[in-house]
Design goal:
169 residues; 4% strand; single chain
Length: 169
């Protein structure tokens, strides 16, 4: 709500003061996208994905095992004894809970890794942004999620990514 109020105020200022807006350089920047699209971030993300590969494979195998048990229960459920059916249903529920827990754990780990990448590259990002602000004489930077519309020519996220890539070389 506050973000929309701020962006509305900025738009109102721009419309009521055309002389001021002609002198101001306003750009749009998505810092997360700029960092994560850099080559260094892609390398770090790929390494993190390789590290998490065994857990992903284990989850995939568990899901296949659960599907096989579901299929067996549907196919043979009518000929199973009540105790066998209850045991199969209980096993299925247990597998489903384990799968859900494992999936949430893996998602949290992926999110943590993403955050680590952002934090690791933050100093380089800050330097690149500071340099661009000086070079281009930028007066105001807006986040794309605070805007209803922004022309793509005002988005400097790609330039920040390119500068991050240049620094990595």
């Amino acid at each position: 709500m506050f973000n929309k109020l701020v962006s509305t105020a900025v738009v109102a200022i721009l419309f009521t003061a055309p002389v001021v807006s002609a002198e101001m350089k306003i750009v749009v920047l998505d810092p997360v996208r700029a960092i994560l699209e850099s080559e260094e971030a892609k390398v770090l993300a790929e390494a993190a994905n390789k590290e998490m590969q065994p857990e992903q494979e284990e989850l995939r195998a568990s899901a296949e095992e659960m599907q096989a048990l579901q299929a067996k229960l549907q196919k043979d459920g009518e000929v199973m004894s009540d105790s066998e059916r209850r045991k199969a249903i209980k096993d299925l529920e247990s597998m489903q809970a384990d799968l859900q827990f494992g999936s949430q754990k893996l998602q949290k780990e992926a999110q943590d890794r993403r955050q680590e990448i952002l934090q690791a590259l933050a100093p380089k990002y800050e330097k690149v942004l500071s340099d661009l602000i000086q070079i281009d004489q930028i007066d105001l930077i807006l986040s794309p999620n605070q805007l209803q519309y922004a022309n793509a020519k005002h988005d400097i996220s790609r330039r920040v990514t390119e500068k991050l890539n240049e620094q990595a070389e």
